[in-house]
UniProtKB/TrEMBL annotation:
Listed name of the protein: Class I SAM-dependent DNA methyltransferase
Residue intervals of the Methyltransferase domain: 43-133
GO BP terms, alphabetized: methylation
Gene3D superfamilies the UniProt entry points to: Vaccinia Virus protein VP39 (3.40.50.150)
Native organism taxonomy: Bacteria, Pseudomonadati, Pseudomonadota, Alphaproteobacteria, Sphingomonadales
GO molecular function term, any single one: methyltransferase activity
InterPro entries (alphabetical): Methyltransf_25, SAM-dependent_MTases_sf
Domain of life: Bacteria
Signal peptide (from-to): none
Keywords: Methyltransferase, Transferase
CDD domains, per database record: AdoMet_MTases
Coiled-coil features, chain-numbered ranges: none
Keyword Hydrolase: no
PANTHER family according to UniProt: TRANS-ACONITATE 2-METHYLTRANSFERASE, TRANS-ACONITATE 2-METHYLTRANSFERASE-RELATED
């Protein structure tokens, strides 16, 4: 089922894009994230979708953006909307960035990967960030794997235990700045904000 995530988002690209443009629950977390990203700084958005509303908000804030998404249809929407930014139709697990970033964002994307792949990605985040760079991502609230339902289709999700995420972040040289489990203000997301210590 994890390998069907790209197919799911390709099939429902326009419905998902329309739904995403209808709400912006993550805005407060993005504002906290941007406090640590200098104007003109470069952000890597993993699971960027069609670029609305998050990519637009980051671009309008004066940051440069590289967006990565496993869905070709999603990336096509983002490229059409923001042609001056970098858009990569790739799996985050295999993408090879050509430079480091001041910020990395993985909102509602990392949790589509199996637990072992999530652990590997957190190690990469530490490598991909500039010194004192910042990371914002969402997870499930507790250890487990399952399938939700979106647009009538099953969609894979997985999570580690919060203590395991904290340990992985520490190993990657990242310190947790803020953590909210099932944050009501962001639509019930479990949110992590961390920075690279050096």
């Amino acid at each position: 089922m994890p390998d069907r995530v790209a197919e799911h988002y390709d099939r429902h690209a326009h419905a998902f894009d329309e739904a995403r443009r209808a709400g912006f629950a993550e805005r407060n977390w993005l504002d906290r994230f941007l406090l640590a990203v200098p104007r003109g700084g470069h952000i890597l958005d993993l699971g960027c979708g069609g670029g609305e509303p998050v990519s637009r908000y980051l671009i309008d804030s004066g940051r440069k953006l590289t967006g990565v998404d496993v869905s070709g249809r999603m990336i096509a929407l983002a490229r059409t909307r923001f042609p001056r930014q970098d858009w990569l139709h790739e799996d985050m697990r295999t993408v090879v960035p050509w430079h480091r970033f001041h910020g990395i964002l993985a909102w509602d994307s990392l949790f589509h990967l199996p637990p072992d792949d999530q652990a590997a990605m957190i190690a990469k985040f530490g490598e991909w960030l500039e010194p004192h760079g910042v990371l914002l991502f969402t997870t499930g609230p507790a250890h487990g794997e399952g399938a939700g339902c979106q647009f009538g289709d099953a969609l894979y999700h997985a999570s580690l235990d919060p203590a395991a995420y904290r340990d992985l972040l520490r190993q990657a040289g990242l310190a947790v700045i803020a953590f909210a489990q099932e944050d009501a203000a962001s639509g019930g997301h479990t949110v992590w904000l961390a920075h690279k210590e050096r």
